[in-house]
Amino acid sequence: MNPTPTPTALAGIKVLDLSRVLAGPWCTQMLADLGADVVKVERPVAGDDTRHWGPPFLRDADGNDTRDASYFTACNRNKRSITVDMARPEGQALLRRMACEADVVVENFKVGGLRQYGLDYDSLKALNPRLVYCSITGFGQDGPYAERAGYDLMVQAMCGLMSITGHADGTPGGGPLKAGVAVIDVFTGLYASNAILAAINARHHSGQGQYIDMALLDVGMAVLANQAAGFLATGQSPGRAGNVHPSLAPYQDFVTSDGNVLLAIGNDGQFARFCAATGHAEWAQDARFATNTARVRNRAELLASMEPVLRTRTTAEWITLFEDKAVPCGPINTVAQAFDDPQVRARGLRIELPRDDGQPAIAGVANPVRLSATPVAYHRAPPALGQHTQEVLQEMGLDEARIEALREGGVI
């Protein structure tokens, strides 16, 4: 007898996923990981754009590249994939029927783009008043930029994030940089999933769904966090400072005898322990360095004292010494080194998701949410294009003849 499966937090929640690329799929993957039944709707033949965003590609049992880009796998596990041509009336009818039974719809079409298909919020709300409908766009549903297409890189530039990322002008490698990951898309997905859960909870009291307007630019401004707060307090735009923290010191990377070590000293006690560990307890007594505010104001003098000392040992030697003294520090890992880190391995952050077709399992990164009673579950690898079309349509009550007719007509 199979053991009783562990309950999931969103068991019974049905999500119709009309999104593609990253922000929307990141949102719906979060919901799927928490137990929602997410049905991802893709274009026949082509599918989600990210299925083709390679290299890198997945590899087959012989180690050869397939036509499936690994990008897609980052944000589409635990979902079922169906192919439906929403440009056809029959396809629109299928999706409206699914929306009638759904709790949530997520889409990232241009503003008003789904109205022509009868798949916009007003049309679907009339059929299902309990529906929570989340639209993700570059700039939101109103304002002078509402009609523009929006992409992560554009928004990183427009919201000011690139102006504070990278080395300062006039230094080696100086100039604005994007983050190494599409962070605005990822943050938008996380904000969207939070908003959806809030709307579902509100529905418990009102019995009614609601519309959620998510914009990449809004999120980009929000995640400026302390940098935005600093500007609002002073009227001065922060600049780029490389790996140096604008409000803490020492909080950056330093050259060692064989590489780099990162120090993240966040209070005066940690700084005093750092000084003692390096054999320079006098630094903590120096009025220029005794408090964090003083250290920030006298950063150049502090670094001039620290840098020669930190070059005298290897990265590993410093980490061993500082960790023993409770001084926050660490290496600057490559992605390969990060996956090989003992803590990463102990936390099980690399997962393997078996595929139904017998091809090699797809490796992924574990969801970081740890719930004690309703944990995240991994029950499906990222799906092949249209893998579940037959299954989902049968659940809707369509018989074999009807499904075959839709397939022959190019609707699915």
TrEMBL record:
Keywords of this entry: Transferase
Coiled-coil zones: none
A Pfam family of this chain: CoA_transf_3
A molecular-function term among this protein's GO annotations: transferase activity
Record-linked InterPro entries: CoA-transferase_III_domain, CoA-Trfase_fam_III, CoA-Trfase_III_dom3_sf, CoA-Trfase_III_dom_1_sf
Gene3D superfamilies: Crotonobetainyl-coa:carnitine coa-transferase, domain 1, formyl-coa transferase, domain 3
Designated name of the protein: CoA transferase
Organism: Comamonas endophytica
